[in-house]
Amino acid sequence: MRSRFYYIYGLGLLVALLDQFTKYWVVTTIPPFISVTVIPGFFNLVNVRNSGAAFGFLNDPDTEWQVWMFAAAAIIAMGIINYLAKTSGKSCCLFTGLGFVLGGAVGNLIDRVRLRSVIDFLDFHAMGWHWPAFNVADIGICVGAGLIMLSMLKQK
């Protein structure tokens, strides 16, 4: 049982550290609102702030209530992660997903508490289609959620 928690929280720590390191690199390397082309017509690095949820959802200049809402959501997510880790079988897929979600939630929570917004920097676009900028924490949350769903499908 204890090894589950070490695995989940260790992976979460790695994701959160990678997220914070990449955001630090972006903030110290790319001026705000500047786009650096990495792959022309497809991928840029940018330095933008997002006061909303993932991919710009709920992006609103009035962020005070959002900081508390997202902090509460992160704490609730940690409680759910603990519950699932205690009550679930030995699903490596589930535990990996929980670690990714935890790391992503913590990475973005650090930004929200410190900056009242989240630093986004990965900017993809192609053929007139443009995806809102996102970060490593968002990737962790999405990949983790996918792994959790996959583990639940495998159980049925």
From TrEMBL:
Its EC number is 3.4.23.36. The keyword Hydrolase applies. The keyword Acetylation does not apply. The chain crosses the membrane at residues 65-85, 92-110, 130-153. Keywords: Aspartyl protease, Cell membrane, Hydrolase, Lipoprotein, Membrane, Protease, Transmembrane, Transmembrane helix. It catalyses: Release of signal peptides from bacterial membrane prolipoproteins. Hydrolyzes -Xaa-Yaa-Zaa-|-(S,diacylglyceryl)Cys-, in which Xaa is hydrophobic (preferably Leu), and Yaa (Ala or Ser) and Zaa (Gly or Ala) have small, neutral side chains. GO terms for cellular component: plasma membrane. One of its GO terms (biological process) is proteolysis. It is found in: Cell membrane. It is a multi-pass membrane protein. InterPro entries: Peptidase_A8. It comes from the Bacteria. It is an enzyme of class 3 (hydrolase). It holds the Pfam family Peptidase_A8. GO terms for molecular function: aspartic-type endopeptidase activity. This protein specifically catalyzes the removal of signal peptides from prolipoproteins. Belongs to the peptidase A8 family. This is Lipoprotein signal peptidase. The lineage of its organism: Bacteria, Pseudomonadati, Thermodesulfobacteriota, Desulfovibrionia, Desulfovibrionales.
